[in-house]
Batch of 2 targets.
Target 1
Amino acid sequence: MNSGKHFLEPPKDLARKDGKRDSLRPDTQLRVTRPILTQQAFDSNYGLLEPGPPLRPWGEIKRIGGKLWKRKTTSNKSCPKLAYSFITSWFPVIAWLPKYDFKRLLIPDFVAGITVGVMNVPQGIAYAILAGLPPVCGLYTSFIPTLFYFAMGTSRQCSMGTFAIISMMTNKIVGSYSNPVSMSMATTLGTTVAPLLSTGNSGIVENSTTPLLPVEKFNEREIEAIRVATTAAFVVGSWQLLLGILKFGGLTVYLSDQLVQGFTCASAFHVFSSQLTSVFGVKGLHEFFGPFKLVKTYIRFFEVIHTAHPPAMIISAVTIVILIIIKYGINKNKKIRAIIRVPVPAELIIVIIGASVSYSFEFAENYDVVTVANVPTGMPPPTVPDFRVVVDNPAILGDTFALAVVAFAITVTLGMLFANEHNYAISPNQEFKALGVGNIVGSFFQSMPSGASLARSAVQNGAGGRTQIVSLVQSTIVLVVILALGPLLQPLPRACLGGIVMVAVIHLLEQAVELVHLWKISFVDWTIFLVVFLSVLILDVDIGVGIGVAYAIMTVMFRMQKPKVRGLGRLPGTDLYKPMDIYTTAYQRPEVRIVRIDAPIYFANAAYIKTRLYNLAGLHDAMRELKEEKEDTENDEKQRYAFTNTIVIEDNEEQPPVEQYERKLSRVSSGSKKSHAHLPRTVTGSLSQEVLKDNEIVSDNTDSTDGSEDASIPKLHVVIDCSEVCFVDVTGVGFLKKTADECRNIGVTLLLACTKKSVRDMLEICEASELNAPDRLFVTVHDAVLYALNNQTVQPLAVDESGKTVNENRQSDTRM
């Protein structure tokens, strides 16, 4: 059926080349005719959702609590559905696995799983050595936490397990809190959970059972390192689980991209430097901890460089060359990747060749090359972490907290990157839980703290992995190595592992060039990167993270402490008000000064905003004269929360010269101190019909005042555009009250426009009755300006034939 609507074809000169119609013609005009609206009239006419008085803090708490309780109790879900919803919130695999598309996703996930799995084995061994642990601990860490992330994680491309930065931070914890260990502790470490839980207060098995872990293959230093690392993994997991339950995942907003990049780049230098012993085979280069660690390391390295081992250097050089050729010459070559489609497992090739050649030519015996030497076969029995490490060293709580946050930040940053690429969402709180449970359970099986790996996650994504089925496949490969292939890795030279680690962090070192890019874009972001980078590089990882987060937060505080406060002007022929320092055609009427505040008003920026406001409104000189005349403050209640406004703040912002408002003393009676509280008369009668043109105000009511001082209206109005003010605190309300009071004392009226409901509620709660009056709050800046211009002179009340006043609707007509 024909709707009867007819559409005209657009003119040929307006038609687009693709045949589509332009959404807006250049000659389109907009004409709006409506009454000038105060905020009160607007809320009344258009149905404010919550018209009642604003809630006090306790009432707001009860309202939010009631909504949450109602949401939980009035759910239409039955008990089984509620239980299912709770379980799937902790284990998302239950929800997505039944919907898994085996035909489309199984093959790419399987291929990606094999690729990442074979990469996980050499990296797990190398990063375990980096952490100061036996190589097999890296394999345990690549298995158990990865399984739990498969069940609980929300990112589909993150590859869990060992990672260079986490291993380096673990190495610091192991080195800082390890103590000489007796063989009785070794026996305790090898016992199962049940015998250990049944021991006395000492925590050592009195009648020890036969150790299920082959502790004879670990020396005392390795046993002590495992004891500290597993306890650290448990504490790290506990921190992460607690933060996830408390829903602290939102903290990721304070970890900006520049902060994470600066941190990972500087950490990569630490990781790179930690492999000097393995790569050069030097002797006497021990670990340093604390500030200036890197400086001390290189000073010591050049002191012992004469002890370098040539065979180790040759092995490292060959390893690095092969890895660079494969990674950058083949895997990153688009033409070659289009043919082979799957990246070449460079690390696995190095492991196979290195172990085979070392075994054939007996590198350890003939050339004194240090090899892995000890990779036990089989999974360890579950053992309880030794919590005496925490009792004896409470400072470990701070180190593990930093490690927990760093591991989480890296994982979530990678997760958000891949989620944006593949158009899905991740849950930061669930990521906290997944990491926490994986670390807690892994600590019972000699795992060290774990997290997502940048290199393996990128390979998993590039190899076509689309779900966490990849984690299941790679865990299976690692398990096979743990159960059967471990002894084959024992001849592998540690120089090969050092080369693997060095090449693996090259892409992190490349982030240093980001400084050049940021310098051209944002000075603040450039400083964040630089501060974090230098703090981590010169001091230490955990100290640098703390300094970086603090500095990043401070930059936000400083920018909010000195926000943009701009003078606005009206664009000709419109009702639009734009900054005059940006738009050259914007102009202000001399009777109305308009200022916009581009930030919330709170205790830290109130004094600065006040200074900028007076300067832009041309009230600086008048306010200075007023303060010289006034001896004290009469109304303490008005100034109750305005202490911050007494601070002198210099206004260093560039601004065009502003005509100063000449205060008319005759407008304010000076007979007594109470004269400062004199309120100018407000028009309560009719509002005349007018049309505001570019340079004049045309009114149909030209009658003027009789000239009496009491009937005079201020010749200046100051309009504050609050459209960017998302909240005010008590100090902010004090600032507005004090500003309004000071303006009134010099014959100036303060108007607020575009205020949000939260701001109006705060004004009412703080009893700012003058600011909250109907003729002080307006819906738009244009409404406030029209009201101010109409009230520059007193207008007599319109009277009908019976002598009663008549209220006429004042109309604003805007032509665009």
Target 2
Amino acid sequence: MALLIILITCFMIILATSQPCQTPDDFVAATSPGHITIGGLFAIHEKMLSSEDYPRRPQIQKCVGFEISVFLQTLAMIHSIEMINNSTLLSGVKLGYEIYDTCTEVTVAMAATLRFLSKFNCSKETVEFKCDYSSYMPRVKAVIGSGYSEITMAVSRMLNLQLMPQVGYESTAEILSDKIRFPSFLRTVPSDFHQIKAMAHLIQKSGWNWIGIITTDDDYGRLALNTFIIQAEANNVCIAFKEVLPAFLSDNTIEVRINQTLKKIILEAQLLGVLKNVTFTDGGNSFHFDAHGDLNTGYDVVLWKEINGHMTVTKMAEYDLQNDVFIIPDQETKNEFRNLKQIQSKCSKECSPGQMKKTTRSQHICCYECENCPENHYSNQTDMPHCLLCNNETHWAPVRSTVCFEKEVEYLNWNDSLAILLLILSLLGIIFVLVVGIIFTRNLNTPVVKSSGGLRICYVILLCHFLNFASTSFFIGEPQDFTCKTRQTLFGVSFTLCISCILTKSLKILLAFSFDPKLQKFLKCLYKPILIIFTCTSIQVVICTLWLIFAAPTVEVNVSLPRVIILECEEGSILAFGTMLGYIAILAFICFIFAFKGRKLPENYNEAKFITFGMLIYFIAWITFIPIYATTFGKYVPAVEIIVILISNYGILCCTFFPKCYVIICKQDINTKSAFLKMIYSYSSHSVSSIAMSHASLDSMNGNVTMTNLSSSGKSATWQKSKDLQAQAFAHTCRENATSVSKTLPRKRISSI
């Protein structure tokens, strides 16, 4: 009996929809009375028949193109209502239905919607205009359908007027989730947003970035296309082409949609609110509508595969839209899913880690060239749009690097070969200082030691040399605040003390062998050894103290080099550093002038010539140091200063003490009192002869000048004055020499030379 009813109904529907609409009742596809009527909108026919005879007449035309799948969906709705009526679910309440064929046309669906909204129990099918439809009773209480999103949106906007519930079974357009514009719309299929998200996820998972899009020319297709393009660009997927097909094709070209029928119908009161909160189960799965009116269902991922000339559709996975994951049932399907990655769908070859994408002139971002990451940049993934910058202060990276390497901390280490060599030279210098001190101590009463200023001044100079050699150790090893402050201060003060002592020796030599009474008088007033040494050294102490107070050297972390971090001492103030060195240079220059004037004095016991050489070595070393120090960069900057300190220290040590040590050790025969007196006599005789010759020359010159020009009496007087001075010096020298020879010069005089 039930089968017969279904067949009769089918016949009536097919017959009614195949004829043009003559009366409003002819427009209805299927109907059944009841206490509560549910409307239905189904695209049972594919399209309306277009006729050229009356293209402008406002009438509903005949529908053509029967869709068996949609017809079965219509029967499913009728069957569900009949099952509810035959059950005890709604005791005493009979459900009716009023189903229309939209013919896949918005205008036909709108006409059906007008009948849904007409007033209940009214003899005429009219829709009343009201400002408030709260008490208005339409003939239909809820609507199922329609299939296409384009039709559903038009129908839903009309149903919104009375907030009539509408349940869509195929309308997936994302815009329908907007409850501001479609407040009464619910659906049993997910939004296209999740479908497109699943597609984008699948494409990304397969490693594709160069794809084409085929869509239909309707609201569903256009909206899906726009959304997919946005998600594709967000995943760096490029669209190679876009093809828009007509919206309605033949039965065999459109994917069969699986509808879900309404399981429960609730009483009329608060129907929309109840529908939004309804929950039902199917096969152990629970379903409900979310805040957007979308059902919490997912999608099946199917694979179209040609086998032996036949196209097969295989379900590969399920897409869980809530967790954005693909659920794969078995290992075989998982392997099939993994094989998708073997399908190449890329415009360009992927860039490996250590490279970045360089976009070509193509309009697509997926068409690019691969370029190596530059120095201090890296990339650790494939197809990175740009390389990441390393932290230049602590890390570095070579060209085409996949990681950043930590910079190595460098300084002049104790294990460095150059540092070891410089330490050996410093230690050797200290040994020389100790050896010289021992030699001078053992030969304390010899003329050579006494002519050097005595053991006390020699010890002070040797101590300064010792400190200078020792100060080089503060330039090696990891810089610390203490070592940075100590090394320059120790060198500056000790070297100044050394030069001050040598300055007093130079002044003493010049004083001992000066025969000009006025110059000798001036030198005697100037010669205050302790005061000179104390004053000169104190000035340097003040300079260094101010330096340490206001701009002390500190440890600096130099990160300007690309691959290493240099720990170095920052001098604090270049001005203070230059002042310290400049002050030493001034003292050395004065010492050089004094020593240079006494360079021709008695050779064996005179160190003026060697002091001159020592000062020259100092000047050459430090003049060379300035440009080298200014241009050297890195951990070997301290080594440059150590080398200059060693050169200047060795130069002064060798020139000041080594000749005397040579005389003490190798020429002991001239390091005696008698040899010393003989040398004095010889030098005095030579000096007297020079003065006598000078005197004769002056007399001759004076006579010639007088005979030639008597008017030059002023000049003659000047020459006469000079002659008298030279004569006095000659007499003084003769007396000193005669006394020295006959009376063997007093011990005090010998010690002072």
